[in-house]
Every structure is written in structure tokens, then in C-alpha cells.
Specification:
Number of strands: 2
Strand content: under 5%
Number of helices: 22
Shape: globular
Oligomer: single chain
Largest sheet: 2 strands, antiparallel
Distance between the termini: 22 Å
Strand order of the largest sheet: 1-2
Helix content: over 70%
Length: 480
């Protein structure tokens, strides 16, 4: 494939990269007074990048001699990433203005550069492309976590994320070096051919280190330790971003590496995935029970949901991968809706309130917000008829079809643990004595996004099943 044809596959990344650099120049010369215009410019770039996926960038095949892959799987993941990132840019100005730090022009630009890295991650056809994309995403994320420079918690979150992220990057890079040393290639196709001849001890060690490094990116147990502290300390729009877009990119990258690069060694890595899935669902459920902060609770909720998504990968089939991608699509709607609801939690002085007890009696003072909270909590718990039930059903169905019905039974049992703390929040909202009322809603835009997310995960979401299932299955088959 010619260089021009290869470049055509990367149009979404080119749009975001060139646009981000132009907006960076606007920020440099115009300052923070142009921050909101830059934010809407970033949203327009995400829309343009998403539209570009309808061309060769959406299903053009491998480019740059296999280093980059533009297929329906990557297009599905990129679309979720762009939607998540755009929403996190839209809801940010109000939060930063109310927090006293002011909305800075760098915020949407960092989101754009992070999205470029995530695009490279999900389209990686080589371990070096994987690493470059992951580091580009991570470097922007470290700055975003500590974006409120005068807030001690934000600075602490950024430092913890940086230190632990550097450790995870080292682990991943060591795994890449082992795989290269024992297979002689970093291309996914070449690694798959080498593993098909029989997995050596060195290759197995490399596989373990790579899966450990990627587990950090998706907050899977036992590499979840950064998640609660970073989610609690980072600004809420940044936390919403961490809980959505990078999760999708990390999960998509893990699926591609597992299926395309190491598909011939499925029996070897399946044990790792099963352990991470069970440990994440159990710890994510149990550890959330005693939390007093809504953001820490949602952090453990994300760990719990990653565990359920990994059950689809454990099946090792196209149906399992499709179930995981459907899970991530619905998870994005539930998570973004939940965090936008958290943005509405402000005291009478306008400052953010994050304690669960502050939600007491919310149904009497803000019935609309209370109903939205209830919808998202029930959906995250996977309680029918809300749409959050459907992706859980898909991953468990894939496990049963693959012959792993005991694992499916354990997974269903662990979902009961998570349901406890979700229902605890609903009980606090509707049945506890009223706490001091929150400040009135200050943004109709946030209210509109909450409504859209609530409708998406309500029973109306089942109307999207034919389209969602067809799209996710087409994405999964692109890997097999």
C-alpha cells in the first residue's frame, strides 16, 4: 500500500492532530478568553473525525506495512471514544468556573491529543504502535488529572497517576521486549504465527507482562490501585473522561492484542483474563460498599464493570468480543450520565459536594435529578428492564455458549454484590431524611445530556439492539 493510501486510513487522527495544534496556537495568542470557543472547536473536530470513519479510515484495512489497522473494530471503538471525549469537553466549562480555577484553554486541547493516542491504540497492528499510542494518551491524562493546580487533591491525583502509570508502562515495555526477543517480530500477525508453533516459557512471560500493563489501563484487579484516589482527586469532568474514553480504548486494545496477536495462545492468556474478571467483579463490588464519596464509589463501580466486560473476552469467541464491545457502548452512556449527575451536586455556595449522604431526600428537592440517578444506578446494577441488563446478558450468554457455564454462574452471583451498593444510593435518595438542598441547576445543557443518557439506558434502549448487535458483531469479526 502506498504512503498516500496509508495516510488516508489515518484521516481521523490527522484531523484531531492538526486541529489540536491550530487550537493550541489560538490558545497561545488568545489566552483563556478563547477557552469556550476552543472547546466548541474541539467538539467540531471530534464530529469531523467521527464522520471521517465513514470513508477508508473506517474499513480500509492495514496500512504502513501492518503498523496501523483501519477496520470496523477500530471504527466502533473510535466512535465511542470521540463521543465520550466530546461530552467531557462540553460539560467542563461550568465546573471549572464554579470551582474558582476558571476554565483554561488547555483542557480541550489535552483531550484532543489524548484522543489521538487512543485512536492509535485501537488501530495498532504492531507492539510499537501500541506503545506510542498508549503513551500519547497517558501523557495528556497525567496533566488532566492535576488540572486544578491549587487543589491539593488534584495535584496528588496527578502525581499518583504519573508514578503508577510509569510503572505500568515499564512493565508493558518489558513484556514487549520479551515478545520481540522470543518471536523476532513486533507485528501482531508475526507474533500470532510464532505462537502457533508452540508457546515457549519466554513468550509466556512476555504475554503475562503485556497483559499486566494493559490491565492497568482498564483498572482491572490487581492493577486497579490508582483508580479510587485518582477518580476522587481529579476534577469531575476529568474523572468522567477517565471512566469512559480511555476505558473503551484500553479494552479495545486488549481485545485486539488478545485475539489478533495472541489468538493462537488463547488457552494461555484465558487464565489471566478469568482471574482479572473474577477479582475485578468481586473487589469492585465489596470495596464499594463502605465508601462515603460518590466519586470513589463510581471508581469501584468502573472496576466492577470492567470485570464483567472481561467475561466476554474470556469466552474467546467472536460472540464474546461482540458482547464486550456492546458492554462498553452501554457502559459509556451509564457512566457519563452518572458523572454529569455528580456535576449537579453543588451546595448552596455553588461548590461541589461529593458525599453520598448529601443525596439524602433528593427525590423531594430535585425529583428529576433523583430519577436520573435511580435510572443510572439500576442500569449499572444490570436490573431489567433497564438497558444495562442487556450487555451483561450478552457476555454471560457468550460464556455459556463457549462451555464456561460455571464461570457464568459465578459472574452472575458476583453481580448481586454490586447491586447492593447501587440500591443503597437509591435508598438514600428516596427514603432517607432530607439533607441540605443542592443549588439549583445552572446548565440546561447538562440537563439535556443527562436526559439523553437516561433515555439511552432506559427500556427505550432495547430499540437499538438490532443496530448495536449488528455493529458490534461486525467489529468482532474483523478480529477473527
Amino acid at each position: 500500500m502506498s504512503m498516500t493510501a496509508s495516510l488516508a486510513l489515518t484521516v481521523p487522527e490527522l484531523i484531531l492532530s492538526i486541529g489540536a495544534m491550530l487550537l493550541l496556537m489560538v490558545a497561545a495568542f488568545g489566552g483563556d478568553g478563547f477557552a469556550r470557543a476552543i472547546g466548541w472547536g474541539a467538539v467540531a473536530l471530534f464530529a469531523a473525525a467521527g464522520f471521517a470513519l465513514t470513508g477508508p479510515a473506517g474499513n480500509g484495512g492495514p496500512g504502513f506495512d501492518g503498523l496501523y489497522i483501519a477496520d470496523s473494530f477500530a471504527a466502533f471503538a473510535k466512535l465511542l471514544v470521540y463521543i465520550s471525549a466530546a461530552v467531557c469537553v462540553i460539560v467542563a466549562p461550568g465546573f471549572f468556573d464554579r470551582s474558582g480555577g476558571g476554565y483554561r484553554a488547555e483542557y480541550p486541547i489535552l483531550i484532543l491529543f489524548s484522543a489521538v493516542g487512543m485512536g492509535m491504540m485501537v488501530s495498532a497492528g504492531d507492539l510499537l504502535t501500541l506503545y506510542v499510542g498508549l503513551e500519547l494518551q497517558s501523557l495528556s491524562a497525567y496533566v488532566l488529572a492535576s488540572f486544578l493546580r491549587r487543589d491539593t487533591r488534584s495535584a496528588e491525583a496527578g502525581l499518583k497517576y504519573f508514578v503508577l502509570g510509569a510503572l505500568a508502562s515499564g512493565i508493558l515495555l518489558y513484556g514487549i521486549s520479551l515478545i520481540y526477543g522470543f518471536t523476532g517480530t513486533t507485528l501482531f500477525a508475526g507474533i500470532s504465527d510464532a505462537l502457533a508453533k508452540g508457546i515457549t516459557t519466554g513468550q509466556l512471560f512476555g504475554m503475562v507482562f503485556i497483559f499486566a500493563g494493559l490491565a492497568f489501563k482498564i483498572s482491572a484487579v490487581p492493577f486497579h490501585m490508582w483508580t479510587p484516589d485518582v477518580y476522587e482527586g481529579a476534577p469531575t469532568p476529568v474523572t468522567a473522561f477517565f471512566a469512559s474514553a480511555p476505558k473503551v480504548a484500553g479494552m479495545a486494545l486488549l481485545l485486539r492484542v488478545a485475539v489478533e496477536a495472541m489468538g493462537s495462545g488463547t488457552d494461555s492468556w484465558r487464565q489471566i483474563v478469568i482471574f482479572a474478571a473474577l477479582a475485578s467483579t468481586i473487589l469492585g463490588g465489596v470495596a464499594a460498599i463502605g465508601q462515603s464519596s460518590i466519586k470513589r464509589l463510581l471508581a469501584y463501580s468502573s472496576i466492577n464493570n470492567v470485570g464483567f466486560a472481561l467475561f466476554g473476552l474470556a469466552a474467546g469467541t467472536a460472540e464474546g468480543v461482540a458482547g464486550t464491545m456492546t458492554y462498553m457502548a452501554v457502559y459509556v452512556a451509564m457512566t457519563l450520565g452518572s458523572f454529569i449527575c455528580v456535576l449537579q451536586m453543588r451546595g448552596a455556595d455553588g461548590q461541589p459536594v461529593e458525599t453520598i449522604t448529601s443525596l439524602s431526600g433528593l427525590s423531594r428537592s430535585r425529583p428529576g435529578l433523583a430519577a436520573a440517578f435511580a435510572i443510572f444506578m439500576f442500569s449499572l446494577a444490570g436490573i431489567p428492564p433497564l438497558f444495562g441488563f442487556w450487555p451483561k446478558f450478552l457476555v454471560f450468554d457468550a460464556l455459556v455458549r463457549a462451555g464456561f457455564w460455571p464461570l457464568a454462574m459465578i459472574g452472575i452471583a458476583t453481580s448481586v454484590i454490586g447491586a447492593f451498593y447501587y440500591l443503597k444510593i437509591v435508598k438514600t435518595i428516596y427514603f432517607d431524611d432530607p439533607a441540605p438542598e443542592f443549588a439549583p441547576a445552572a446548565s440546561r445543557l447538562e440537563g439535556g445530556l443527562i436526559t439523553l443518557a437516561a433515555l439511552a439506558v432506559s427500556p427505550l434502549g432495547y430499540l437499538a439492539i438490532p443496530l448495536l448487535d449488528a455493529t458490534s458483531m461486525a467489529a468482532a469479526r474483523a478480529l477473527f
